[in-house]
Amino acid sequence: MLHRRATGPESGAEMSAAGIPYFTAADIHASTTPAMAVTAIEDALRSGLDPKDDLVRTTTGLRHGQFLLMPSEAGDSAGVKIASVAPGNPRRGLPRIQALYVLFDAATLTPRALLDGTALTTLRTPAVSFAAVRSAVSRLGHAPRILLFGAGPQGRAHVDALRSLLGPEAVAHVTYVVRNPDRVDRSTVRAAPVIRAGAHHGAVAEADLIVCATSASTPCFDSNQVKDDCVVIAVGSHQPDAREIDSAFVGRAQVVVEDVETATRESGDIVMAIADGVITADRLVAMRDVVDGSRGLEAGRPVLFKSSGMSWEDLIIANAVLEASMRRPQDR
After folding, report:
1. Shortest CA distance to 270 belongs to which of 289, 243, 297, 290?
2. Which E.C. number(s) belong to this protein (predicted)?
3. Which of 70, 124, 145, 291 has most Cβ atoms within 10 angstroms of its Cβ?
4. Burial class (CB in 10 A: 0-12, 13-18, 19+), 72
């Protein structure tokens, strides 16, 4: 038997065969709201965590894809996410990316918990995004017109996070852009309009918040149409030769990244914009400086948050899930 129901303080989690609590996707979403996840990221950065000290992730090629190993250590915890990337999986009706997270005690390296790594990633990615741009989104002063490129789990999770942070009225105007609208399960997008890529130009011009959560390797839209106070979040591309945002917008915007060195090494949106001569690394803004208030974002200029996806983020959210679960009443 793989799991048995927990009876200890981690109420709601299951126990692995080794007696370590295992948090399913349902456990993670039941214990930790997106707003709680945003707060956990902000608290970590304000308490001294510096993303530039994070451990570098490694990629190992396999016959049918890749393993990504994402280790991190902070405070009294250490952890590693083991993610698999199988490009052929969508044809089999399986997720392209799957993951498992192992949380350890930092002093003894004793395993503390196992977590569904895919659900953990879905929770932490928008948490990082909105920790980085919360101030810019808040100053819009009205329910933003939201345009999402991609209707997958990450795109929808960004909508859920904004709803959790600011209330249902904050997501009253949402539009999805996808390559094939006929393949979108309309029940998952809450009856929001879904338009075909290529027919989105008017929507770009009207958008206050644009989220790119795609597998695209070329820019999702023409940035000449983007308003001067628009906030853009790009989380889909993670290779130095792939991007969702064109160089013109990177040069025009205030660009926030998790870590400057990581972004200039891994994020194609940044790497190619630097190669095109529209921006230099010293113009990139570290999100830690935005969150702790040491660096403000100018009004009247667009903001771009480009996420690389770093190991410290999973560690912080895994800890938040464990702590929130321990505070929940035990199942009767």
Report:
1. 243
2. 4.3.1.12
3. 124
4. buried
pLDDT, average across residues 249-273: 97
Q: Which domains does the chain have, with CATH numbers?
A: 3-120+313-327 (3.30.1780.10), 128-309 (3.40.50.720)
Taking 80 as the threshold, does the pLDDT of residue 332 lie above it?
A: no
**To 10 degrees, what angle do helices 153-166 and 34-46 make?**
80
Cβ-based burial of 328 (10 A; exposed 0-12, middle 13-18, buried ≥19): middle
Query: What is the model's pLDDT at position 8?
Result: 45
DSSP secondary structure, 209-222, as one string: EEEE-S--SS-SS-
The continuous run of DSSP H or E covering 257 comes out as strand 254-257
Q: Per-residue pLDDT for 142 more than 80?
A: yes
Of 216, 116, 213, 206, which is closest to residue 157 (Cα–Cα)? 213
Nearest CA to 82 out of 311, 319, 313 is that of 311
pLDDT tens digits for 179-218?
Answer: 999 888 888 888 899 999 988 889 999 999 999 999 889 9
